């Protein structure tokens, strides 16, 4: 893989779960890292790592110019639909990213690395999926030198909810137990995002990101059982009950309507990555068993030296 060294990188979303890992991955690659952090957000952990902090907001175009000055590239992991703040809205995912694209182009940045979602172009009825696709299109139409990584479901998303269930021997999620879909560990995604800064052959591409194979909840329960040495069962309520519950909650909440639409899409079995390009650009695709093993190590549920099941 040929490389073009772009050493000064701006990270958007650096105070988040994925963004913090991206910062560490960049520092491991000896990059100079600056973070755009919203006023009021705690940046102390980033400062301890030696990250330069610039205060600003994706929704405030004037604040983006000083953040971009002197940078070679940017990586954005920001996601308004996650609603980390009460003021967050899906508009951040659309207009906020458009603002970033315009500012990056005006500043002459050589790379715009975007965190998208697997098969964003297919799920036209899932708002936050479709917004990602629209941003990709905007970057392409405006000739911004972008790389879009499209990860599947995060193994370590919803840490407290999921890990709490696993500790009790139950795997809880919103998908039918036999539907296979793609998973990825955020540690791996962060490394790919950092690597994409120096991969000119990735420019202009929308790249599926996942682990070795798609797996169902039933298969995940088997993997976790083998790793933990005790039985883990799928503890989902029936899909019709979950869907009905989200339907009622969706009458009052835009985010619940979005979640219900995402759940519907996942049930189709189409939420599956083609990791051919991922392997070519970023190296061997991790085995799904290894991803779950490292997740359990991070939760202190197994020792670091535990072997993955075969």
Features:
310 residues; alpha/beta; Rossmann fold; 12 helices
Report on this model:
The chain is α/β, with parallel strands linked by helices. The protein has a domain at 8-154 and 185-210 and 272-286: 3-Layer(aba) Sandwich (Rossmann fold), CATH 3.40.50.720. The protein has twelve helices and eleven strands. The chain has helices at 17-28, 44-48, 61-68, 90-107, 127-141, 159-167, 186-196, 217-228, 239-250, 254-267, 276-282, 288-298; strands at 8-12, 32-37, 52-55, 73-76, 111-115, 146-151, 153-154, 170-171, 183-184, 206-209, 233-234. The strands form three sheets. A seven-stranded parallel β-sheet has the order 3-2-1-4-5-6-10, with helices on both faces. Helix 3 (61-68) crosses helix 4 (90-107), helix 8 packs across helix 12 (288-298) and helix 9 runs antiparallel to helix 10. The radius of gyration is 19 Å and the shape is globular.
